[in-house]
Write the structure tokens for this entry.
Amino acid sequence: MAKKYVYLFKEGNADMRNLLGGKGANLAEMTNLGLPVPQGFTVTTEACNKYYKDGEVVSDDVVNQIYTALEKTEKVSGKQFGNKQNPLLVSVRSGARASMPGMMDTILNLGLNDEVVEGLAELTSNPRFAYDSYRRFITMFADVVMGVDRLKFEKAMDKIKEAKGYTKDTDLTPEDLKKLVKDFKAIYKKELKQDFPQEPRVQLLEAVKAVFRSWNNPRAEVYRRMNDIPAEWGTAVNVQCMVFGNMGDDSGTGVAFTRNPATGEKALFGEYLMNAQGEDVVAGIRTPSPITHLEEQNPQVYKQFVSICNKLEKHYKDMQDMEFTIEKGKLYMLQTRNGKRTAPAALRIAIDLVKEGMISKKDALLKIEPKSLDQLLHPTFDAAALKKAKVVATGLAASPGAACGKIALTPEKAKEMHKKGEKVVLVRSETSPEDIEGMAVSLGVLTATGGMTSHAAVVARGMGTACVAGCTKLSVREDKKEIVLAGTTLKEGAYIAIDGSTGNVYAENIKTTDAAITGDFATIMSWADEFAKVKVRANADNERDATRALELGATGIGLCRTEHMFFEANRIKAVREMIIATDAKAREKALNKILPMQKGDFVAMFKVMNGLPVTIRYLDPPLHEFLPHEEAEMKVLAKELGKTFQEIKDIVDSLSEFNPMMGFRGCRLSIVMPEIARMQTTAVIEAAIECKTKHNVDVHPEIMVPLIGDVKEFLYVRNIIVETADALINKAGIELTYKVGTMIEIPRAAITSAEIAKHAQFFSFGTNDLTQMTFGFSRDDAGKFLGNYYDKRILESDPFVRIDEQGVGYLMEHTVKNARAVDKNFKCGICGEQGADPLSVQFAHNIGITYVSCSPFRVPIARLSAAQAAIRNPKCK
Amino acid sequence: MAKKYVYLFKEGNADMRNLLGGKGANLAEMTNLGLPVPQGFTVTTEACNKYYKDGEVVSDDVVNQIYTALEKTEKVSGKQFGNKQNPLLVSVRSGARASMPGMMDTILNLGLNDEVVEGLAELTSNPRFAYDSYRRFITMFADVVMGVDRLKFEKAMDKIKEAKGYTKDTDLTPEDLKKLVKDFKAIYKKELKQDFPQEPRVQLLEAVKAVFRSWNNPRAEVYRRMNDIPAEWGTAVNVQCMVFGNMGDDSGTGVAFTRNPATGEKALFGEYLMNAQGEDVVAGIRTPSPITHLEEQNPQVYKQFVSICNKLEKHYKDMQDMEFTIEKGKLYMLQTRNGKRTAPAALRIAIDLVKEGMISKKDALLKIEPKSLDQLLHPTFDAAALKKAKVVATGLAASPGAACGKIALTPEKAKEMHKKGEKVVLVRSETSPEDIEGMAVSLGVLTATGGMTSHAAVVARGMGTACVAGCTKLSVREDKKEIVLAGTTLKEGAYIAIDGSTGNVYAENIKTTDAAITGDFATIMSWADEFAKVKVRANADNERDATRALELGATGIGLCRTEHMFFEANRIKAVREMIIATDAKAREKALNKILPMQKGDFVAMFKVMNGLPVTIRYLDPPLHEFLPHEEAEMKVLAKELGKTFQEIKDIVDSLSEFNPMMGFRGCRLSIVMPEIARMQTTAVIEAAIECKTKHNVDVHPEIMVPLIGDVKEFLYVRNIIVETADALINKAGIELTYKVGTMIEIPRAAITSAEIAKHAQFFSFGTNDLTQMTFGFSRDDAGKFLGNYYDKRILESDPFVRIDEQGVGYLMEHTVKNARAVDKNFKCGICGEQGADPLSVQFAHNIGITYVSCSPFRVPIARLSAAQAAIRNPKCK
């Protein structure tokens, strides 16, 4: 039998999401539940992949299956495609496995042509509706399917409105609309050198192809990359009988959530517009009414809707996000899906569902997107600063969090300012999918129009970016590079502050402060820790970061980069003196100046981390990073150190490298200059002794040697460390344990780890460098071609953000296996920046990593990821 | 039972070389053969390693075993250590597994003290001999054991000679020598604040320790590194009863070879000096007589010696290098070993031994050091140029090959000149072990004194460097930076030419030409090919190199680096135009200019390699390597291309990279700019079509994609290649096969090779880059710390010269296994510079590599190495 590429709604169910896409699977499920769903069929994601495999051609068998499904749909609906007397109109919509709101294309009212439109006008006795639908269809088809600029049609409409002195679209008479259809078809012909297609089946096939193509449009690609959706998934296409929310005042359309997506509150939440099509709500052109108003307007429909909502939530065991249309008083469900929500809402809903007995703790933890926790750690306004600040306008509290930055009026400007290191708030009349990259670099988004479900609101919530939408006192003058906010003109670049939790807008620079783990957040984190196997440490180089890490639940410091301690202005001089030294003696003299400062750093950190391990990585970067490179600076340095400019320049030149990443750095420094390791060990151990004896602190120093490639390198440095440390401990006459371990960040270290494991007390994967060398990608240079690699699908995700399991992961797994052969409890950590990426944490769990270490702010994300990994793969040790 | 650290000679044998060292094992073997060997014992290499392990201390059990062996030796010899009436004197010599001539220390006449010397004078009735021996011993002990500068003693001797008006050492009377001993002891005391040790057992232990220490002296370390001798081997110490060649005119000492070490001729070859100790011969201070003269001088001893020589050669089945001493008419054998020889001699001896039925072809092949073949490929003087050249002096033809270069008078100067890219001939009075690095960078060595077995001659032969020794018409004035050669003064830096095969010296610049494979060389190479499994290809980028490769027996081109074709003056402009292009169209225009040139290159190479495969690697280096970096050059380029200076500078700046090794290069270029791969494919395939159709050439192009890290990269570029190639072949309407494969030079490519192997038609390991990234060593920068790594024994050999089996080798083996799982004949080559290193070829054989590819001149070395690997490990496929 031929492969099945097309499923009627009644043939599918919710489990067929991979094949039918999310929308298609849920339409099928709702059909099975007996809910009022306009019937239709889904062309599968496999058909999409086949389309690309066949060279962007829809094969005959797929076409035939579409036609067969169409005929069955005609039967069910009692209407017929292209039949003037009883025309079937359909919508054609994309639907991928994962929700990608607004990223791909939709065509409504398909099936209309010059004849059918007349029939429809007669049938509905509503020529205004019929011609309005037709002109919308022509525009959409020309734009989405044929790539004609929508503006061309809008201009033609504006021309008529101007000529007639109309102000609103609804002022257009049926005759105007009829004329407009004629004009639109003329534009279509002029632009495309062909007539607008009159055959509905041709329209349908072209629309299906357009949806397939839209899977690879640039904004869909960006969205996929941001959300880790593989290109291989493809999109399904849903062809569904049209129902019309724009057939008069007894018709309407809306979207609703079973719980509040911003707060999680258990109450129906949504908006609707009477006499409108769905696109009107989503586009944010008119401001809709709250769903509760429907109770007054049409109590019967409202009651039916509430009952459906309850049924769906119980069925899916999660908060639902639904679209519906009322056609002449009859309710139709067009979509349901698990609703997107803010992080606070996600926590509250998860906890409530457990309390309501609907789901288990494990299910609750799996429902929360780890990355979304980031939102909870976003800043709020400093309470004192806020008191003095003045609210100049308010809008909808569309995505929580406080943001303050300089105004950017276009996504391009936002990116440009972000690149310069400026904090940016993107201010737009309304946002559209093209703005997505600009939104990604902004701390907050402010729009003049659009509701809680407008594009700006949905996308900002997804990103965890603060958003105030529908701020009516705002007008954006993009051409003049300014906005007018409650009567005051602000230039692009001026400060603005928004609070996405209250909707307040401020025309000033307000200090923000960080959030803490309390309430629902704390509950979920404690649940996570019950299940997680992989521990979470933090990367912290100073007392402040260590304190923050502890507050956010870190179980230790996994990476303290000692060189960061060297850059402070009062220390860099001694560091430079050390580098400029021409022999070991002079070097030691300079190192002795650094020693007390470094010791002080460690004392402070040990105190904060009382009872927890602190992993200290020894000097790692190439020495030239500490030296000045400008002539003027070199001259100053020469004077300071009593050298000639030429002497300094010679040293700077001699330390410059062709490939510093693979040059004189890491343990290579301490091998050539053992006095560095000696000084650092002295600082660590003296600090530990002081903490233990004077401050009664429980210290657990873990000394980590960077950039090992061979066991002999490790042994050489370890011996220096142990000799120095033991002498100090003996002299102090106390008991003090410390560990000496190594980074695994050179491929050869991973390969030969069986040997290294015999001598090291712990391993920590430096996944940044390991990724660089395994791929042969210089992180600083790869930007030049990685964009191209994404475009060409050679890479699907950034290996510096997510551990590459096939390559880098192979080396890690090999290493863990070798280490555990030596000692089944051998401590293996990860301290690269991938340490908090949920999929990387899952990988870490699967291969038996002891802990991941990440920046303090990402600790909660890693904790939840670790719990999810353990729940998903409980067998793993 | 306690571990045995000391073996009497009669307890050992030749197979115990690892434990007893070469010298010790052979002394034992000769003892067992009943030859006249002064008895003694060997302290094992394990004792040396224990000495280092114990922190440079000789442990009590070793000391006791030494004393026990000493007592047994006293019994055998009938003499006694420290006994005035019948004193035993011993020599203490190093002896590692591998011969390291002159690299470590020797102490003679040990056992003498103020009393014993008087006894010896009486016993021998030769006070001159006794005191001369004592003053030599004090000097040697002070120098070698205690580190006192030898010059201090020589000065004291010169003072007496001056005072007395003597010209030669032998003018010194016994009384003078007695006085000298007194002076020497005073110097000893002054320098060391202690008396010269009178207790022979103390002398002995200190001497043993000194030999152990000498294992790690700087020249031994350099020698080991050059000859791949691991530091872990350690040295043995041989303690042997002294026999004296300096007891009068019926005494003497000499060295001899059973065959001529320079030519391989089957005839006893050697030198001796009457009334002398061994050091006098080796040091080249007096010029000795040829061994054949001994027949006249002492026919009986000569006959006995010849008979011993024959016995030893038959026993060891190889040419022997022997040391002997005649004490008062009695012959003693002090050493035998397989003799070092020139490459031509090695070939002749190996072939002769097979002809004589002594060994098999396999044994013969194993006897030849592959690296030594290098000598045979050294240049000879151009015949025409030689006709016009004038011989101004002659010396001993100590190491074959012609060399012409500028005079350097010190090793430092030689190194300095070499660094500047100059050709150097090192000219010295005589060389010493300290000169070894200077010799290594010189094309030839010329000395004024010393024979065929002098330091200069032995070391130069080992290195394959041309050497003329003992050139009596030469006087070197190091202080004046000049030499006088047959009356003519030549300044340092002037041209000189030497012929190590004839001994001729020329004071001019003579053109040299390359050698070819004929005669014995051809015989051995054909034998080698009978056994070798690993094929040998060559790296060649042009017609000339390809021709040379074919002459030297390459079975194909394993690496043609297309970028080398781009640098020629008339091409670089088009290449730069291509790089400067801002879009694909402009880039294609520039590429079209390069296309015919590149096609021409390939036509020429295909013609040369008719019937053999040619592996073409596509553009690999970062583009900025093709661009000028000086402002002036950039301005010229701007003018040429009709751009502004700023435009050019912006492009140059934008292409500069932090770590170019891991940047925008290799296949990444063709992925971002597919038109490059398209042009290169067009050039390859059009050239192949032209060769096939117009020139009747059998073409086998193998297209190789560089720097693959993921199968998707390979597929992307392969698809471009295949599309382009197939279109051209179809158009031409002919049959033409080509292969598309990939380099394996990124660790990730090796790790994920199972996937890549499914799509590639061959693999070639780029062991240079693979080593860089596996170690995280930038080849251009690692020099800064690798020296330190060798000093500290963290690395024993340069991984860019010899494949690192543990790390890089693991990835290679993993890859070969994956490839062979896809296809058991999957072609896996090596095209890194390690391709001709004998141990690397052996590794290649062991893991089943199909071919290695190296520079044309190293092809014969690789062929022999491959044969040896197959003979040593015949089981490997």
Notes: Residues 549 and 856 of chain A are 4 Å apart (CA to CA).
